[in-house]
Structures are given as structure tokens and as C-alpha cells.
Design brief:
This protein is an alpha/beta fold. The protein contains 21 helices and 20 strands.
């Protein structure tokens, strides 16, 4: 006879979930007790459930296996929803286990009771409640399968606390096997025929379902066909940015030459990306519902293909098997677009070159310094805010799974993602970028980094405001500042209070030394960069944005 809590832990071991991120709660004490006897499962105790879910998301992205997060009912579950939403829009395999009220209290609005099927219905692939402990092996096996199959994503299971204490005999399950749709030989032949007939093709890579082998396969394909390659929003590590065919990222603040190249293309091959709002410039870069270009859309979810754009050749396939099928293809002779990839990369290099802005702090130069001094396998994380523009434009990602950033644009992601990354790969350098507003969403997870001795480095770009919202204010309501100013703590002192290393940088030339000392400290480190609020984008100051808006009337 085994308790429900013990069955949960046995299932985690069976499915090789070697790590759990949690905030403890009395609603799942039976699981915590069972973890006491499972040293093979590493547990990271976090300071807020949103941070725990974001750590699990980062773990899932980096490993390709479901990140596991455990939280308590009610407030714990609602806090965790931020991370679940990120995992859903990013297609990250994640399993959220929620302690639930006892079964005899359901539908009474008991203490912290929520119906999670209704709450999480639109932001998870599957939401269920396990009513009897003997079905735990079945539900857990299905959770791992659903989270990793087709288009990966989050699964939510509610665990009534009395069910977790229940002693039962349960039939064992088998380890999950992900289901990956692959292309038929016919669709690959049709694609190569369409490519051979094209004159200005362009390849866009994105989404999840990749690994290092898939990136190598698609690189061989691009090289054989001499295709210019772009990457979807916050998916820049799907293709080495220093490769001579790399054209840049297709996202916010896109290179105008890259934008024009996509508009002028006669064939767009999109592998893995959903073609969402950020990658399509608010659905304006590509015409909807029928693109001007011939569109070949490859995605593992058949419901995603055709959601917005009608594809001339829709292919339901995951990136791994599709890239593997493409790797052996090659054109019969010279391609019509010879030299287009080289020119696209030259345009990218010109766009990627650091540019100067007014004042003592040059963010482009700081990012360029990191490019020159970080190892290729360093992991860069960030949340949301205009500060990320400099990272996306000027950093060069050359190794798969070196970028962790939410395509959902969720603030507060950078710090917990860095903690999750360092727990997954302690030997790799992990650097988190955050704005001042972004950092204070989940900056308390620095305490988690300190607790486990994780020497992450956090770069806080402090301009004393919610910069992105202020920028939009100036564009739409010039000069009418409302609800975007911030009064911040001394971030470096805060890092030291958490037990880490803290420094303040006010001039560009101070950064290199500060970063070296942060690395040498061996502790969680924070470098506060004080940035003039005027420096809002690499191309325009706030005043210039305001003046342009006023000139339009």
C-alpha cells in the first residue's frame, strides 16, 4: 500500500524528472514528505510561485524535458500562472502540480479553493484533477506525454490533499515516450521542387522541439541551398548568428533591410515558429490571411497551421524530424538566388555593429563586451522591457540553447530563468538582464540563488521608469506622463543584503572591471547600470519620440 504522495514521487522518478522547483504548502505535504526519501530528485525551494514556474520553464527549455513545479492551492496557483502562460506561448514542456482542497470540501468555496480546469483552461494543453490515488501513475504518464508531444506545452494537475494521504495499490505505468509528427517523403519532395522554382526564398526558424542535432541538420540544409536564414522573436539561438547565411532576428525593432527582404521574398519557409504577433510585426510583415509570398509553414500542431496564415504547403511536423529529412536534400544545380545569403549576412553585420547614443552609458558597447568575453555556451536570460532591445540587436548567439527569453513578453523572467538555468547546468556561465521594473517583479529569487550558492550575474538596467510604457505614452500622448515613473532601491546594496555581490556602473568604461569582479566573486552578483531615461532605444531618444509625435499633431 502506497500513499498518493509517494506515487507522485515514484512517477517523477520513473519519468526521469530529476529536479523540482517549488514553494511549499500544507496542501501537498504528503508529496514533500515522500521527496524526503528521494535524494535522486533535486528540490529548489523558491520565494514566489511565479518565480518557481519560470525556473521550471527555463529548465524545460534547456533540457527538452518537462520542468516540474509544485505549488499550493489558491494564491500559490494564481502566482504560478505567469510562468504557465509563458510556457504555453513559448511551447515549453512543463508540469505544474497544485495541492488542492480535500475532496469532501469541493464546491463549497473552501479555503483557497479554485477550479483549476476553468482557471487554466486557456493557458495549458491539459488540466485535470486526480480524484483517486490509484490513478496517479496513469495521470502522471499522460501529463509527461502531453507536455512533450506535438507542440510541447504546460500541463496542470490538481492534487486534493486527502487523495495524497490515501493508501492504495496502483498498477505501475511505463516511462512516457514523446510523440513527434514527421514529414512524409512526398511533402519533402514538394518543398524541394518549390525551392528549385523560387527566385527569392527566405528561411525563418523558431518555436520549440529543437535540439543541437536539429540545428546542425537545418544548418546543413541552409548551406546546401545557400538560403538566407532569419530567426523568430527571441529564438535567435536556432541558428548561429556568426554564420555567413544568418540574416538576423525577425522580431521587435527588426532591421529594415531584413524586413524588406522578407516582404520581397517569393517563398517563405517557416519551421517551428507560430508566426505570432511579434514575429510578423503585428501581422503586417506578412499579409493575412493569404500571404503575398508562397508560404510553407512547418509546425507540430495542425491547429496552429492556418490559424492566421493560409499556407501553400502546410506541413505538420516537429523541427527535429523535419530538419533531419531536409539535411540530405540539395539543389540539382546552381540556385537563382546565389549571393543573397551573403548579402543578408552583410546587412546583419552592419545592423549588429555597436552604435553610439548620447551620454556616458553605451549599452551597445556593454553587450559587445559580453560577446567578446563570454564563452560560447553562456546562457543569456531576460524578461521584458526596452533594455532587451540592446541584447537582441547586439548580442550574437552562436550555440543552441544559449538564449532564454519569453516570447509572451512577461516581465520578471530574467532572474528566475537564470536560477533555473544554473540549476540545470551549473558549469555554464549564466547572465540575466533585467530592467529596474522587471527586476523587482521576481528579484527576490536572488535569495534562492544565494541559498544554493548559484553564481549567476544579473545586470539591472535602471532608468527609473517603466520604459516601454513610457515610450508608448510619448508616441500616443506626448508629454502626458502618467503612472510610469519609479523610485527604486539601491540595487547593489539589495544584492549584498541577499548575500551576493553588488556594484553600480555609471560610465561605460566601468563595466568591464565590474563584470570581472562579479565573475570572480563566486557569488550571485548584481551590476546596476544607471541609464539616462532619455536613452530609450538604440535609434531614438524619448525627446525625439515626443517631438515626432507632436509634429504629427
Amino acid at each position: 500500500m502506497t500513499t498518493g504522495g509517494e506515487l507522485i514521487v515514484e512517477a517523477l522518478k520513473l519519468h526521469e524528472a530529476g529536479h523540482v522547483f517549488c514553494v511549499p504548502g500544507e496542501s501537498y505535504l504528503a508529496v514533500l514528505d515522500a521527496l524526503h526519501d528521494a535524494p535522486e530528485i533535486e528540490v529548489t525551494v523558491c520565494r514566489q510561485e511565479g518565480g518557481a514556474a519560470m525556473m521550471a520553464d527555463a529548465y524545460g527549455k534547456l533540457t527538452g524535458r518537462p520542468g516540474v513545479c509544485m505549488v499550493t492551492r489558491g494564491p500559490g496557483a494564481t502566482n504560478a500562472s505567469a510562468g504557465v502562460h509563458i510556457a504555453y506561448q513559448d511551447s515549453t514542456p512543463l508540469i505544474l502540480l497544485i495541492g488542492q482542497v480535500g475532496r469532501d470540501h469541493v464546491e463549497r468555496e473552501a479555503f483557497q479553493e479554485i477550479d483549476y480546469r476553468r482557471m487554466y483552461g486557456q493557458m495549458a494543453k491539459w488540466v485535470a484533477q486526480i480524484e483517486t490515488a490509484d490513478r496517479i501513475p496513469e495521470f502522471m504518464a499522460r501529463a509527461f506525454t502531453v507536455a512533450t508531444s506535438g507542440r510541447p506545452g504546460p500541463v496542470v494537475l490538481a492534487l486534493p490533499e486527502d487523495m495524497l494521504r490515501e493508501r492504495v495499490q496502483a498498477a505501475p505505468a511505463a516511462r512516457y515516450v514523446p510523440v513527434e509528427p514527421g514529414p512524409s517523403a512526398e511533402t519533402v519532395t514538394r518543398l524541394t521542387t518549390m525551392l528549385a522554382e523560387a527566385r527569392r526564398p527566405f528561411l525563418i526558424l523558431g518555436g520549440e522541439g529543437w535540439d543541437a542535432n536539429a540545428v546542425a541538420d537545418v544548418t546543413r540544409f541552409a548551406e546546401a541551398w545557400r538560403l538566407p536564414v532569419g530567426t523568430a522573436f527571441r529564438c535567435q539561438d536556432r541558428f548561429a548568428n556568426d554564420h555567413p547565411l544568418y540574416a538576423g532576428d525577425v522580431g521587435i525593432g527588426i532591421n529594415p533591410k531584413l524586413s524588406q527582404r522578407i516582404r520581397d521574398a517569393d517563398l517563405l519557409l517557416v519551421i517551428g515558429a507560430r508566426l505570432g504577433e511579434m514575429t510578423t510585426g503585428g501581422y503586417t510583415l506578412i499579409d493575412s490571411p493569404v500571404p503575398a509570398q508562397t508560404l510553407v509553414h512547418v509546425h507540430p500542431d495542425p491547429e496552429e497551421i492556418g490559424r492566421v496564415y493560409h499556407a501553400s504547403l502546410p506541413i505538420c511536423a516537429s523541427p527535429r524530424p523535419f530538419a533531419r529529412a531536409l539535411a540530405s536534400t540539395a539543389p540539382q544545380g546552381a540556385v537563382a538566388w546565389a549571393g543573397a545569403g551573403d548579402q543578408a549576412h552583410a546587412d546583419y553585420l552592419a545592423w549588429n555593429r555597436p552604435i553610439a547614443v548620447p551620454g556616458d552609458m553605451q549599452m551597445a558597447a556593454i553587450v559587445a563586451h559580453l560577446v567578446d568575453h563570454l564563452p560560447d555556451d553562456a546562457i543569456i536570460t531576460n524578461g521584458a522591457g526596452n533594455y532587451a532591445t540592446w541584447v537582441h540587436r547586439f548580442y550574437r548567439f552562436t550555440r543552441y540553447r544559449s538564449q532564454l527569453a519569453p516570447t509572451s513578453g512577461s516581465m520578471g523572467y530574467g532572474v528566475p530563468a537564470a536560477v533555473g538555468a544554473k540549476r540545470a547546468f551549473p558549469e555554464r556561465t549564466v547572465v540575466a538582464f533585467a530592467g529596474d521594473g522587471c527586476f523587482l517583479m521576481h528579484g527576490q529569487e536572488l535569495a534562492t540563488a544565494a541559498q544554493y550558492g548559484l553564481p549567476i550575474i544579473v545586470i539591472v538596467v535602471n532608468n527609473g521608469m517603466y520604459g516601454t510604457i513610457r515610450m508608448h505614452q510619448e508616441r500616443n500622448y506626448p508629454g502626458r506622463i502618467s503612472a510610469t515613473e519609479l523610485k527604486n532601491p539601491a540595487f547593489a546594496d539589495l544584492a549584498r543584503a541577499y548575500g551576493g555581490h553588488g556594484e553600480v556602473v555609471t560610465r561605460t568604461e566601468e563595466f568591464a572591471g565590474a563584470f570581472e569582479r562579479a565573475q570572480a566573486s563566486g557569488m550571485p552578483a548584481l551590476i546596476e547600470i544607471r541609464l539616462d531615461p532619455e536613452i530609450i532605444t538604440p535609434r531614438q531618444t524619448l525627446s525625439e519620440i515626443r517631438e515626432a509625435a507632436l509634429a504629427k499633431g
